[in-house]
Specification:
- The chain has 393 residues and is α/β, with parallel strands linked by helices.
- It folds into two domains: 248 residues, 3-Layer(aba) Sandwich (Aspartate Aminotransferase, domain 2), CATH 3.40.640.10; 132 residues, Aspartate Aminotransferase, domain 1.
- The strands form three sheets. Strands 1, 2, 3, 4, 5, 6, 9 and 10 form an eight-stranded mixed beta sheet that branches.
- Helix 4 links the parallel strand 2 and strand 3.
- It is globular.
- 47% of the residues are buried.
- Pyridoxal-5'-phosphate binds next to helix 3 and helix 4.
Length: 393
């Protein structure tokens, strides 16, 4: 069998090469490389896709987080609540602005911020944490499944907090809210996307977007991404260069047309895994726990978009090593909770503070799930896992 890839971006490129190459050449001919019509059209298309009124293209998902926090004036003396079980950028953005991240533990089934824990935290702290004012929450839709947002929005309303959805891993993912089915980025006050090449909608370099229904915030975001300048060389507020390139936008517009079919292929691969694990009898003995689809059967299409297919596995580290010896690539998202990272040691957290997150980091294992993943690879992967657990109990 040919080599198994964790993610094969070349397969996707090959399937749309002609369209993409043509668009790139068009941008080159236009010699308009920063913002411009390609970016404006992508903004319109992604706002429509996500069900928001506005969208602002920016330089990366990390910058989308920073600029959305800047837009609501987050800085020194402020605090922002988020998950300790996420990519670094979520908490990094808060700290970069001089504010303090406050971590809140996750739900063991979804790995997403727990509304129950959030309620407890706010009940205990009110709107101040060690003298810092709690101003916002960043729920992260991890692996492609939306956070349970209704109770989070409710809490945010009661405590006057702004909600920024980190949807870097969940473009297009749906949520059955009390007000109907909503897509990631349209549920809070703002939502951010990343177009890092490995994301479900990935560019040929860095890129990101902030989406919102708020006109005022949109104007502020557009100012901020241009050094705070509306008229050239006159600066109204302190901003930066957070602009999206036209080539990226052009590529993303081609890819966006295929996104839903790719999401469907990811879900199909997830279903195949579920069936294979079932047949391999790895579930009943608790060797492997599959991802939970908490919104399935609620009339949603994108109830999960499987940016990652993450299982919990007994004896995870040894399994990973064994799979490596069988040439099965796997990955751990994430091996160390953010509250235990060296760079955040100043926040005063210690081991045991967020037990659900810590347990997850010791047990989770991501398997290849990219859209073009061959069925034969999935069969080999599950057979290899079965081999590892053979005779163990
Ligand atoms: C990828 C990612 C980001 C950052 O996006 P970049 O475009 O790589 O800067 C932020 N948050 C989460 C949860 C991510 O997965």
């Amino acid at each position: 069998m040919e080599e198994i890839s964790f993610l094969d971006l070349k397969a996707q490129y090959q399937s749309i090469k002609q369209e993409i190459d043509k668009k790139i050449l068009e941008v080159i001919s236009s010699q308009r490389f920063v913002l411009g019509p390609e970016v404006e059209n992508l903004e319109k298309e992604l706002a429509a896709y996500s069900g928001t009124e506005f969208a602002v293209g920016v330089s990366s998902g990390s910058d989308a987080l920073i600029i959305s926090l800047m837009a609501i004036g987050i800085g020194k003396g402020d605090a922002v609540i988020t998950s300790p079980f996420t990519f670094f950028a979520t908490a990094g953005a808060i700290s970069r602005l001089g504010a303090r991240p406050i971590f809140c533990d996750i739900d063991p089934d979804t790995y997403n911020l727990s509304p129950v824990k959030l309620a407890e935290l706010l009940e205990k702290e009110g709107t101040e944490f060690n003298g810092q004012k709690i101003k916002a929450i960043i729920p992260v839709h991890l692996y492609g499944q939306v956070v349970d947002m209704d109770p989070i929005n409710e809490l945010a309303k009661n405590y006057h907090l702004c909600v920024i959805e980190d949807a870097a891993q969940a473009i297009g993912s749906e949520y059955p809210s009390k007000k109907g089915i909503k897509k990631a980025c349209s549920i809070g006050d703002m939502g951010i996307l990343s177009f890092f090449p490995t994301k479900n909608l990935g560019g040929f370099g860095d890129g990101g977007m902030v989406l919102t229904n708020n006109k005022e915030l949109t104007d502020k975001l557009k100012l901020l991404r241009m050094h705070g300048s509306r008229n050239k060389y006159f600066y109204e507020i302190l901003g930066g260069n957070f602009r999206l390139d036209a080539i990226q936008a052009a590529i993303l517009r081609v890819k966006l047309k295929h996104l839903d079919s790719w999401q469907e292929m990811r879900r199909k691969n997830a279903s195949s895994y579920a069936q294979l694990f079932q047949e391999a009898e790895l579930l009943d003995d608790g060797f492997v726990i599959l991802p939970r689809n908490v919104y399935k059967d609620k009339g949603l299409t994108n109830y999960h978009t499987y940016h990652q297919y993450v299982i919990r596995a007994k004896n995870r580290d040894n399994l990973m090593e064994f799979l490596e010896s069988r040439k099965v690539p796997t990955a751990i998202y994430y091996p160390l909770s953010l509250h235990l990272q060296k760079c955040f040691s100043g926040l005063g957290y210690s081991e045991g503070d967020f037990p659900v997150s810590e347990k997850a980091s010791a047990e989770v294992l991501a398997l290849p799930v990219y859209p073009e993943l061959p069925a034969s690879h999935q069969e080999y992967i599950v057979a290899s896992i079965k081999e590892f657990y053979k005779g163990k109990n």
